[in-house]
Design brief:
single chain; 107 residues; alpha/beta; Rossmann fold; three-stranded parallel β-sheet; 4 helices; 14% strand
Amino acid sequence: MSLDTEGFEVVTALSGLDGLLLTLDENPDAIVLDLPLSDLSGQELCRRLHQDALLNQVAIVALTPMPARAERLEVITTGADASMTHPVSFAALISQLRHLIGLSKHG
């Protein structure tokens, strides 16, 4: 199972800053943000994305190891559209992405 086989075009960044730069180049429909990041906090990356007029409509799903509700809400309040706790169900992730970017089940 992969996002590719579900009809999503996948581009990968290895750090938050790389992801920010790649997002500027690619202008994606959605970002799957696997936290924690090595160089930026997830909250900082979300803030930067939503401060940019070209990127503030990009859907962000944050995958977080944080089970505490308050910590997950912090990611949401800084710009993520959804937060899911590790381990993430692949089917739930696909469903969330489709919901956020308005894809039909059949792409």
